[in-house]
């Protein structure tokens, strides 16, 4: 029962649900019916729902049929009316079509005219709009065209200005156009192009001035030389203003207006062509040769682009590199003056350019940068000059170099560079110049001395006499009174040497010019150099001549005479130096000439050489001596070699008439002493082991000949018997043996007034032993006649006794 109730309840619920679904289907839009149908299919009463759906459809069909049946007659009536209206409508259509055809036919021309008017109005509006837009774009295009023209003609700074106007003023007004966007995109490229081109121009300029800096420097130095010449002309006139000359309108000759359209201002060569000037025409200014517009343009361009610091650093870096190249001297610079000149020209040209840049730009270079470069240049230049000038052996080249350095310093001083170190270095070169002068004058003196005939200068006329006196300060009243022909006491090398000393002084004076030295400093320099010339160069030359192997006595005598006169001329050299330096010799610290000492030393050397030469001649004659020490015969005349020797000495001393008396006397005494010493050595020679009293007698004759020569007074000025004292040792020794006065010798030995004071026991013993050997040898040969040789035996005993006593004297003397 309960189960049937439950089934009935479920069927009622299902029926209600189906009814709800049907209502929902009827009231819901077809597009949203899907969920409703899904709920049907999800249920279990699908068949029952279909039955209800079929039933509901049939009900609706019946209602539709009822409704149609109710309204059918009205529908038929309506259709009938519509058929009537269709006929009227067709008529109306035909009328409208006909009217339209007529209207179209009548309005065809009007339509055409209106269409043409429409097109004209459209074109007019487009043209007006186009003109407006073109008027807006035209300034932009004109500025861009101007920019391209300026770029094409390399007017980069104006182009940069045009680019700024274009970017900030014109392009914003037409920024929506495509071509403007292209222009905007090109602006950074154009800026870079201008920047690169201007930098390229700067590089060309730097390369050009590097190659032409010597020309710039040459012109600047030529200007300085002209100014110095003018200063020399007006030397006595007071100078107006500072001693340093201001630059010749140095910084007013250039047009710094970068927008100039002058072709000259747009050149990037850096160097302008200058034709050769005539000597009498004004030399163009150094800056006149250079077109600095590439530097100015590049500086302005980089400043506008905000890269000025980059530009300044690049410029300074490149110029420092160029400075190092300029300051590197060529390896063969010392060979010619042109090498030094080109070196100086390049340095001057470099600093003239930098000085101009300093004064015509603001901040591109500054004074600290210039000073740094100059310090580097000064140190490197001085080092190079020290090195290369040390190779110079030609004083003319050194002098020309000094003048060039002075001009170099004066030129740079005009531009405000400190050059004191250069003048200090010139003082070093002055010492080197003096050395080269001394070497040159050593050759000159050597040629003069080698070519001299060492004979008094003969003169045959008053003109010749005055010529010699004009060359050398000589006064001799006695010589002036003599008739022509006559002779000066000195040879030709005296006036020649004197004049060369003056030429040397002139050469020293030339170097001191323009060095800004005081008269005292110039005087001191000349005197010191002249002293070196006298004490070293001339002295060495004279010494070399005097020590020459083939020098003769005549030449030596003439050298002594010549040096005597040169010594007397030293006071005239002092006066000569005083006249050219205007410094009185009485001034404090004035150096004195050492010429007197030089010529005295040379004269003493010549005197010593005369003494040596005489002794050598005496030795040569003595080598001809051929004594027979075993002879018993006596020739009663002096040996031939000695006679020749005495004749030589007489002729030699006759030449000494012009020598100072003391020199001749010393030479004569020296010769006699050497002759006496040589004869003594000859007598005591170890190789002569035996000699006879006969040979001793012959030797005595030779000594007497020497004594006779000494008594004859070959040289005036000796007191009586003074010259004979040279032979006193020989005389006493020979008298002792010839007179055989041993008792007196032995008895008086050691007393101050003894007869044989000059006889040494050693010498007497040596000679006695030679005689003893000869007598013993003779006794052995004549032993068979011994009963007839009693006297000889007695004499031999006496010799032995004397020899023993002499040995006792010698031993007692040594003890």
TrEMBL record:
Q: Which family does it belong to?
A: Belongs to the SEC15 family.
Role of this protein: Component of the exocyst complex involved in the docking of exocytic vesicles with fusion sites on the plasma membrane.
- Which part of the chain is the Exocyst complex subunit EXOC6/Sec15 C-terminal domain? 421-770
Q: What's the protein here called?
A: Exocyst complex component
The secretion signal range is: none
Please list where the region (Disordered) is annotated.
254-280
Query: Under the cellular component aspect of Gene Ontology, which terms does the record hold?
Result: exocyst; plasma membrane
Domain Exocyst complex component EXOC6/Sec15 N-terminal: where?
A: 52-221
What InterPro entries does this protein map onto?
A: EXOC6/Sec15, EXOC6/Sec15_C, EXOC6/Sec15_C_dom1, EXOC6_Sec15_N, EXOC6PINT-1/Sec15/Tip20_C_dom2
Can you tell me which residues the record assigns to a coiled coil?
82-109
- Pfam families found in the cross-reference section: EXOC6_Sec15_N (PF20651), Sec15_C (PF04091)
Has keyword Transport?
A: yes
Q: Name one GO biological process term.
A: Golgi to plasma membrane transport
Q: Which UniProt keywords apply?
A: Coiled coil, Exocytosis, Transport
């Amino acid at each position: 029962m309960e189960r049937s109730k439950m089934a009935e309840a479920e069927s009622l619920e299902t029926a209600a649900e189906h009814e709800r679904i049907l209502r929902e289907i009827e009231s819901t839009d077809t597009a949203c019916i899907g969920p409703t149908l899904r709920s049907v299919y999800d249920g279990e009463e699908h068949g029952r729902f279909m039955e209800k759906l079929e039933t509901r459809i049939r009900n609706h069909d019946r209602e539709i049929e009822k409704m149609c049946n109710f309204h059918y007659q009205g529908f038929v009536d309506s259709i009938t009316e519509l058929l009537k209206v269709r006929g009227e409508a067709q008529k109306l259509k035909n009328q409208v079509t006909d009217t339209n055809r007529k209207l179209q036919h009548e309005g065809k021309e009007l339509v055409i005219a209106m269409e043409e008017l429409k097109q004209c109005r459209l074109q007019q509006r487009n043209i007006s709009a186009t003109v407006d837009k073109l008027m807006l774009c035209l300034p932009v295009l004109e500025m861009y065209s101007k920019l391209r023209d300026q770029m094409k003609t390399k007017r980069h700074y104006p182009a940069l200005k045009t680019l700024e106007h274009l970017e900030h003023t014109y392009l914003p007004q037409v920024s929506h156009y495509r071509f403007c966007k292209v222009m905007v995109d090109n602006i950074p490229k154009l800026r870079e192009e201008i920047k690169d081109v201007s930098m390229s121009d700067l590089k060309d300029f730097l390369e050009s001035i590097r190659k032409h800096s010597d020309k710039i420097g040459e012109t600047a130095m030529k200007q300085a030389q002209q100014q110095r010449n003018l200063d020399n002309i007006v030397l006595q006139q007071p100078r107006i203003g500072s001693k340093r000359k201001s630059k010749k309108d140095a910084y007013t000759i250039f047009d710094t207006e970068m927008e100039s359209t002058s072709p000259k201002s747009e050149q990037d060569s850096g160097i302008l062509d200058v034709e050769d000037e005539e000597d009498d025409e004004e030399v163009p200014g150094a800056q006149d040769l250079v077109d600095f517009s590439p530097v100015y343009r590049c500086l302005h361009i980089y400043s506008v682009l905000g890269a000025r610091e980059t530009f300044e650093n690049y410029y300074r870096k490149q110029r420092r590199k160029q400075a190092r190249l300029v300051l590197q001297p060529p390896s063969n610079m010392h060979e010619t003056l042109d090498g030094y000149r080109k070196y100086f020209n390049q340095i001057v040209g470099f600093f003239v350019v930098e000085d101009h840049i300093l004064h015509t730009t603001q901040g591109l270079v500054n004074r600290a940068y210039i000073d740094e470069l100059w310090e580097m240049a000064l140190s490197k230049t001085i080092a190079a000059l020290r090195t290369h000038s040390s190779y110079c052996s030609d004083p003319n080249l050194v002098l020309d170099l000094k003048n060039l350095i002075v001009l170099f310093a004066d030129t740079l001083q005009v531009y405000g560079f400190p050059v004191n170190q250069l003048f200090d270095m010139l003082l070093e070169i002055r010492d080197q110049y003096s050395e080269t002068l001394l070497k040159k004058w050593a050759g000159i003196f050597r040629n003069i001395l080698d070519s001299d005939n060492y004979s008094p200068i003969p003169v045959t006329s008053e003109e010749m006499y005055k010529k010699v006196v004009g060359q050398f300060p000589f006064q001799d009243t006695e010589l002036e009174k003599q008739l022509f022909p006559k002779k000066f006491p000195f040879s030709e090398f005296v006036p020649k040497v004197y004049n060369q000393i003056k030429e040397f002084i002139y050469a020293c004076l030339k170097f001191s010019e323009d060095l800004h030295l005081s008269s005292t400093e110039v005087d001191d320099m000349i005197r010191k150099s002249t002293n070196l010339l006298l004490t070293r160069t001339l002295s060495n030359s004279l010494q070399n001549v005097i020590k020459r192997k083939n020098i003769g006595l005549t030449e030596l005598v003439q050298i002594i005479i010549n040096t005597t006169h040169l010594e007397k001329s030293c006071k005239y050299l002092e006066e000569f130096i005083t006249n050219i330096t205007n410094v009185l010799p009485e001034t404090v610290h004035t150096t004195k000439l050492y010429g007197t000492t030089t010529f005295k030393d040379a004269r003493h050397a010549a005197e010593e050489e005369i003494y040596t030469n005489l002794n050598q001649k005496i030795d040569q004659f003595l080598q001809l001596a051929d004594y027979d020490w075993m002879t018993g015969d006596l020739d009663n005349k002096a040996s031939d070699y000695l006679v020749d020797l005495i004749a030589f000495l007489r002729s030699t001393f006759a030449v000494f008439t012009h020598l100072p008396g003391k020199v001749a006397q010393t030479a004569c005494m020296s010769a006699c002493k050497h002759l006496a010493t040589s004869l003594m050595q000859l007598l005591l020679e170890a190789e002569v082991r035996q000699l006879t009293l006969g040979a001793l007698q012959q030797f005595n004759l030779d000594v007497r000949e020497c004594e006779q020569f000494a008594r004859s007074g070959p040289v005036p000025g000796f007191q009586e018997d003074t010259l004979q004292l040279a032979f006193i040792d020989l005389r006493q020794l020979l008298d002792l043996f010839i007179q055989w006065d041993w008792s007196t010798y032995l008895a008086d030995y050691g007393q101050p007034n003894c007869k044989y004071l000059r006889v040494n026991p050693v010498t007497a013993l040596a000679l006695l032993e030679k005689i003893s050997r000869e007598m013993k040898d003779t006794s052995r040969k004549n032993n068979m006649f011994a009963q007839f040789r009693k006297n000889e035996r007695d004499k031999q005993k006496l010799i032995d006794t004397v020899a023993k006593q002499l040995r006792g004297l010698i031993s007692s003397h040594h003890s």
